[in-house]
Amino acid sequence: MQLELTKDQEMFRRTVRQFLERESPLTKVRELADEPAGFDRAWWRQGAEMGWTAMLVPEELGGGTLSGQGLLDLALVAEEMGRLVSPGALVPVNVVIASIVDAGVGGHGKALEALMAGEAIAAWYDGSGVTASPAGGGYTLDGTAELVEAGADADHLLVTARTGDGLRQFLLPATAPGLTPTRRDSLDLVRRHADIGLDEVRADVDTLVGGDRDAAAAVDRQRQIATVLQTAETAGAIDRVFEFTTQWAFDRYSFGRPLASYQALKHRFADMKMWLEASHATVTAAARAVQERSPHAAELASVAKAYVGDRAAALVQDCVQMHGGIGVTWEHDIHLYLRRVTVNQLTYGTPSDHRRRVADLLAA
Amino acid sequence: MSEDLESYRLAAREWLAANLPTVDGGGARLGSDDEAWQRARELQRILHDGGYAGIAYPKEYGGRGLTPAHQRVFNEESAGYEMPLLLNVPTFSICAPAILDFGTEEQKREHLPAVLRGDEVLVQFLSEPRGGSDLAGAITRATRDGDMWVLNGSKIWSSGAYAADYGICLARTDWEAPKHSGLTMFIVKVHQPGVEVRRIKQVNGDSEFCQEFFDDVQIPASDVLGEVNGGWAVASRLLFHERTAVGGGSPYVSGGHAVARVPEPDLVELARRGGRLDDPGVRELIAESHILRTVAGQLVDRVSAGIRGGAMPDPAASLPRLFSATSNERRIDIALAVAGPAAVIPPAGAPGDLGARYLMRQGGSLGGGSSEMARNIISERVLGMPREFAADKGVPFSQVRQSQTPG
Ligand SMILES: Cc1cc2nc3c(=O)[nH]c(=O)nc-3n(C[C@H](O)[C@H](O)[C@H](O)COP(=O)(O)OP(=O)(O)OC[C@H]3O[C@@H](n4cnc5c(N)ncnc54)[C@H](O)[C@@H]3O)c2cc1C
After folding, report:
1. Is 50 exceeded by the pLDDT of residue B95?
2. Half-sphere exposure of B26 (CA within 13 A, CB side)
3. Which of ligand 1's atoms lies nearest the C-alpha of B90?
4. A254 contact B CB<8A
5. What is the DSSP letter of B94?
């Protein structure tokens, strides 16, 4: 978590936490595991009312921030969601919202409105599996968009496609003929992914986001936002895991003394505390850089993604170990966190992918 | 803020270009000979006369009274210039701040302006042959004799003592009190009758370490730093400044890194020279090293702000300290892996200090308090876990058992 919050941020954080504790505690998350979408639309609308979809939108378009730094504010929501392994599509919805806003809204005002109201959900694809061929003033899209978060549940899909002349991005209704989502299983109990087949999908020019020119820079920016929100969520998750595992170490006794009194274990907790604080530090630095559109934003986002991805999973596994046998049971909640941080680690670029991006920047 | 940062930056840039020589970054070795120390003092004098000494030190003691942010701006601008880096640790960032915290008005006026002029180098006389981690178990002895104290015993691992003017020295003054309550801190003149300084050769060939032998050294009572038998409070503060400095968060460090005196190896260049830059595995290692260094800085920022604002307790300074120690171990390993055999058998004419760095790899995890002690501090004083069993707790120090063969 960011160390120094404004009064407004502090109050907002508390409100979000109370809402999540009341409306989607871990018992509810376990129940939602059996629902196809993994979350409840009415719940999402309430979140939208609270501001989950407003932070990256300027006031004149109906949005607004708490601190003037919307991404840092939104990262607070992500952290709180991490603490309770919350469902929902915070990342794709906000990435799509930010993309529409950055592109000057154009003909996507209705979609933006619906997304901000929590009435609609959006999915986002930034991979290279889709091609766009010019056809009749617009484009025809073909290929497969793999691993799309909320892909089978979204009302809108922002799809990136390759053309002979750079990238283009299109905002399509989920009902567009030729779109076929196929759900995938996920290690996460409530976060859903799908592959979306595109078979001669007609995309008129008015579906373009950012106009008929190369979208590479826009895609970079979207990735940075996704990275910040996702790593913030992971940081929130490990914060909570470390909290209850430390408490456990005080409460659990062996040989007549608490686990917390054994130096071998104390030292592991010290290392974990260091990873935890370093994770928060690098997420905050990345959030700030992306918020400010710093020239280092891409680098710092990848630094955070690589560092947090590796350390968070290692930290939760260590916490499993500190729990003993109960740590590998279905009954104990720690696996909910392990699932979330592992899925977060390996989606939107693995730590290895992000290290290579950093290397490309260094060796350029 | 008394001076706006951007104009400060521009002024510093101009002044540096006009007054300091640049370094070529070719890895010139500094740090183990009298010449380097002499040069550091000269450079500090130039900085002082130009108004860039002790930027974050109070004005009344010869500093500029500006903020840590000003110091940081100056440090950024000073990259590439020859700077008196040898004076950073421990003089500027550990010893002088402790004098600022605990010194009498006379002590502050005597030492701080001289330090900032480059006239006085301070070192730490803390570790002893009997052990450094258990610092409060010091057995160097000071006995009161009228207006004087008489010092006997030995200190070891004191970096740079041969070139220093004063050592901040922890000694036992009451043997019947429990160990923490019988210690007093002194400001001891290094070059005086009764002090013998011996240099110790390190694995990398440097002889920066010293051992001192004290034989009836006379110390005026006015050179006690802090309270008599209150030396542990001063030592704790020194250790706090030390952790902050070696962790990279000191506001008193002038010019680049606190510790590194030799430029960091350029891994991209090393890989290119070795024909490995296209190897994806090597590229990932280069990135990992960069990531660790970046996160180390980010953690310093977070913890410094946390301690300043009260969100974190002082012992949290051990977090960046442990991070810098452990990440440097990893980064040295990476440098070797990236360089390959050239790390240990450098081609003719190439600078070859990677192997020596590797030999000194654990130095960073020992100096400034070991990583294990940092982990003790984090678990006990940040997380509040039970303290380790101590056999010497509450016992008159004269009855505490000591090592079988004190070193
Ligand atoms: C580069 C460098 C610069 C230095 N500069 C100075 C200086 O300027 N002035 C000065 O006074 N000293 C200096 N030192 C000394 C340094 O502070 C000590 O080396 C350090 O505190 C460890 O003390 P020791 O060497 O006596 O090892 P010991 O205290 O004997 O420790 C040996 C090993 O046991 C571990 N250990 C000890 N106690 C515990 C415990 N309770 N729990 C877990 N593990 C434990 C230690 O971590 C270490 O790994 C320097 C050392 C280095 C390497």
Report:
1. yes
2. 6
3. 8
4. no
5. I
